[in-house]
Each structure stands twice: as C-alpha cells, then as structure tokens.
C-alpha cells in the first residue's frame, strides 16, 4: 500500500517540477494527517485542508512546515527542492539569515505603522535605498500589499492624472486576479471566466513575440507589434481616450517572453507623444532578475520587493493628481509594514 502511495505521489509531484531529495516515503505520517482520495489520486492530507476555500489552485497536497535556501520541508519530514522559488518570491532563498535577523529585530520594536497616521523609520530607510535605483523620471514610491493592488492603483492614478479612461494591455499578460485586474489579465481564461461583466475600456494589443511572428525576421524586431499598437489607437481607442498602456516587459505566465528593446523604446515614445502613462508590470522581471534592476524606463513601475510590492511613479503625474485630489489619492491599511520594509531593505 505505502509503495503504491509513494509512486502515485512521486508521479503527481514530479510532473509539476518538484524534485525529491530524501529517499523513501513518510513511513509514519504525523497526526492528524490521514490518507484521502483527491481527484483520483492518493495523497496525505491534514483534515483542516477540507475547510480551506477550494477556489485556490494548488499543484500539490504537501504541507510545508519549514524552509531554508532552495529547500522546503513537509509535515512528514520530506525535503523538497523548490524550483519555483515560491513563485518568484524568494530571490535570496527561503529564510535567508540576514533577512530573518532583520525581521526578528524589527518586530520587537514596531510591528504595524499605518501610513495614514504617520511615517516609520524602516519605510523611510527603504525609500532611501530604492531612490538611486529608480528609472529616469521616477521619483515617488507607494507601497502596496499585493501586485494586483499596485496595478489597480496605477490605473487609478493614470485615469485621474490624464482625465482619460481606456487602458491598453498586451496578449498573454498577467496583472492579477482581483476584480480590477482580471480584465487586464489575458494569460489564461480560467482567471476571468464566469466573473464578468468587467471594467469597461480595456483593449488588448498583440505582444511582440518574435518566435511566433509570421514575418520571422532574422535581423531583430520587425516592428509589426508597434504597427499593430498604432493601428489599435486608430481603430479601437484613440489617444484622447487612452490613459495608460500596461505591459510586462518580460511576459510571465504568457511564456517568459522578453519584449524586444526596440519595441519597448518605440512604445515608450508613442506613449510620451500621446500623454499616455507607460506602466511596466515588473513584478516578475524587476529587482535584478534579468541582470538589471529594471527592464524598462516607464511612467510607472509595479515592482516586487521580496516581502511586499511597490508602485513607482513619475513626479509629473503625482503632482498633477495630488493637486487635484487633495492628497487622498492612494492608501492601504497594511502597506509598508515595518518588518516587510526591513526585510526588503537588507535583501
């Protein structure tokens, strides 16, 4: 029985890129674990899992209890290699000692510093660390708790700053699953199917995927994607209606496809000429993952900061919106948590 369970679980897990490090299966699973059948496959489960909302997609039934570096440990003592890095989160590895030490020291001093009530030192210190890294023209930072929250606030800012409504995104992009970001996400239909109608004014342009381009140019980007973008501005959403263009400079779920540099340059120029905010969603590509701190130089950047998210904004848009909105444009209850700021700063 246990041999069969081991083979079934091994087959299920390896298919998703999880590598087993230790040999043998858990011979004596810790209570209250029990054996159950889920989707036709035998797995070891904790009874509490039955009370967890089933709308969350999950690639395994493992219960993780500890992690270090590239490895995670399950409740039954298995060591697994985390090839996903927590879905691109643990840039410095799980529980990096420097990050853990800084967080431990911070929680003894201040755990929650609400940004609408005042400032706190970890947030200001992190800002000082980030400012020299920002792309040219960006000089304001708003911390958020999720990437979707940061993307939604960038759209909110774009609409208010430009006085325009429509947003252009690109085929295959992933920008979140909240109600405001579902219409922006086109990497999979499962994220949006059955939840409409959505926020109006969203238009989708072809992403510059050179490998799939019918022209198959051998001398670099052929320019077809930027031509399609210009055509969209003539046929679907005029520049006078378009407040922002949102793009992943490197597609994430859409296939890990980098946009050609000439395309990003031309797109930035097109947005500049038409007073359209160029919003780069660099949750997956930013923070040094491609060798540079950022891939692009946009009007706004959505960035992942190890333990939180940040929306980086150009000064001219911030000034325009704050003047009109009397400093109540953005807020978040738990953003820029002191421990998250400290952890991100040392990482």
Describe the structure.
There is one protein chain. The protein is α/β, with parallel strands linked by helices and 347 residues long. 29% of the residues lie in helices and 18% in strands. It has nine helices and 13 strands. It has helices at residues 2-14, 85-88, 97-107, 121-130, 147-162, 224-235, 261-273, 315-325, 338-346, and strands at residues 19-20, 34-38, 41-45, 64-68, 71-74, 79-81, 138-144, 166-170, 202-205, 242-247, 277-282, 300-304, 309-314. The protein has a seven-stranded mixed sheet with strand order 7-13-12-11-10-8-9, sandwiched between helices. A four-stranded antiparallel sheet has the order 1-6-5-4, with helices on one face. A two-stranded antiparallel sheet has the order 2-3. The longest helix is centred in the middle third of the chain and has 16 residues, at 147-162. The N and C termini lie far apart (45 Å).
């Amino acid at each position: 029985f246990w041999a069969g369970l081991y083979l079934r679980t091994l087959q299920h897990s390896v298919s998703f890129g999880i590598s087993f490090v230790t040999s043998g299966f858990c011979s004596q699973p810790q209570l209250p674990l029990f054996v159950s059948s889920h989707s036709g496959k035998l797995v070891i489960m904790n009874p509490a899992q039955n009370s967890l909302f089933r709308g969350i997609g999950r690639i395994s039934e493992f219960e993780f209890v500890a992690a270090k570096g590239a490895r995670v440990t399950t409740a039954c003592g298995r060591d697994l290699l985390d090839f996903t890095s927590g879905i691109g989160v643990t840039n410095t590895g799980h529980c990096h000692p420097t990050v853990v030490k800084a967080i431990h020291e911070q929680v003894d001093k201040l755990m929650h510093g609400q940004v609408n009530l005042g400032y706190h030192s970890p947030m200001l210190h992190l800002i000082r660390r980030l400012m020299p890294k920002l792309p040219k023209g960006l000089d304001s930072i708003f911390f958020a708790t999720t990437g979707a929250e940061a993307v939604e606030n960038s759209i909110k800012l774009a609409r208010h700053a430009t006085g325009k409504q429509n947003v252009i995104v690109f085929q295959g992009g992933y920008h979140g699953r909240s109600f405001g970001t579902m219409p922006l996400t086109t990497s999979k239909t499962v994220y949006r199917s059955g939840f409409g109608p959505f926020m109006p004014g969203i238009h989708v342009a072809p992403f510059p995927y050179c490998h799939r381009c019918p022209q198959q140019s051998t001398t670099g980007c052929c320019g077809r994607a930027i031509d399609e973008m210009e055509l969209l501005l003539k046929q679907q959403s005029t520049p006078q209606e378009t407040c922002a263009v949102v793009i992943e400079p490197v597609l994430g779920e859409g296939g890990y496809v980098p946009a050609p540099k000439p395309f990003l340059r031309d797109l930035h120029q097109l947005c500049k000429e038409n007073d359209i905010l160029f919003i780069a969603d660099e949750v997956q590509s930013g923070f040094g993952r491609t060798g540079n701190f950022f891939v692009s130089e946009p009007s706004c950047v959505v960035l992942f900061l190890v333990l939180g998210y940040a929306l980086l904004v150009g000064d001219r848009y911030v000034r325009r919106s704050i003047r009109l909105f009397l400093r109540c444009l953005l807020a978040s209850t738990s953003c820029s948590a002191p421990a998250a700021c400290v952890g991100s700063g040392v990482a």
